Amino acid sequence: MRFVFLLGGILILTACNNLPGRPGPGPEVARPDEVLDFKVLYKENCSGCHGADGKGNAAIALSNPVYLAIADDSVIRSITASGRGAGMPAFAQSKGGSLTDKQIDVIVGGIRAWAPPDAQRDASIPPYSSSAPGDPKRGGDVYTTFCSSCHGADGRGAKSSSIVDGSYLALASDQYLRTIVIAGRPEIGAPDWRSDVSGRPMQAQDVADVVAWMAAQRPQYPGQPYTTSSHTTSGERKHEEPK
After folding, report:
1. Which of 242, 105, 129, 113 minimizes the C-alpha distance to 182?
2. Other CB atoms within 10 Å distance of the CB of residue 230
3. Nearest Cα to 174, choosing from 235, 215, 134?
4. Phi, then psi, of 190 in degrees rounded to 5
5. 160 — phi, psi (to 5°)?
6. Domains along the chain?
7. Between these two residues, 148 and 132, which has the higher pLDDT value?
8. What is the DSSP letter of 99?
9. How far apart are CA 204 and CA 129, in angstroms?
């Protein structure tokens, strides 16, 4: 009798495996922090801003050869892990993000693989970081020469958008501005450091100076809805008498 009951139980359990709706055998789904496929990681974490295959969208094109020429592995890793201005969040788990160090290494390697195999660094390209501070006064002249034809005489926009808008400058760090000046945004028609003026590439000091000029336009208190002269030291608005 025991054998009969045991055999019956086995048959019942075997039949349960074939019930409608029960998932069939297949590969187990990997834990999110165990995914090490670059295409999956990039699509889920990067493509929304940087576009499919790094071709750019709301943010800079990561497959831009000029960007890859100036941003080495340590730069790309630091930005991915810790974030930066202009809305780029930190992705490292140690910074409150969702990616492990191994996953960040995979993303860095995948982005670096977009560089053309025969790419060589142009000796004339300005470096990623400036070794000397820029001069905002000289930067105004640099802006007039290289940038005003698209962004207008005062930087408030003409063929292209304003680059002195307070909200934009509050989000964009000096390094981000420098990166855009050098690498451009080819996906939206913004030229790189070589192409603002035909046959006259920007020099490293030109880049530093024009970034200093843009930084000088940044509001002292980003997001403040009124000027410092129109509120009290306690932060309350003054009530002016009607004129």
Report:
1. 129
2. 10
3. 215
4. -85, 120
5. -120, 180
6. 34-112 (1.10.760.10), 136-216 (1.10.760.10)
7. 148
8. B
9. 10
- Does residue 175 contact residue 239 with C-beta atoms inside 8 Å? no
> Which sign, positive or negative, has the C-alpha torsion 180, 183, 189, 191?
positive
Query: Model's pTM, two decimal places?
Result: 0.78
Residue 240 CA to residue 227 CA, distance in Å, equals 14
Six token digits for residue 236 = 């309350």
Say if CB 190 and CB 180 are below 8 A apart. yes
Longest alpha-carbon distance in the chain: 105
- 82: number of Cβ within 10 Å: 15
- 205-223 tens-digit pLDDT: 999 999 999 999 998 875 5
Of the candidates 161, 53, 152, the residue with the CA atom closest to the CA atom of residue 111? 53
Backbone angles phi, psi at 145, to 5 degrees: -75, -45
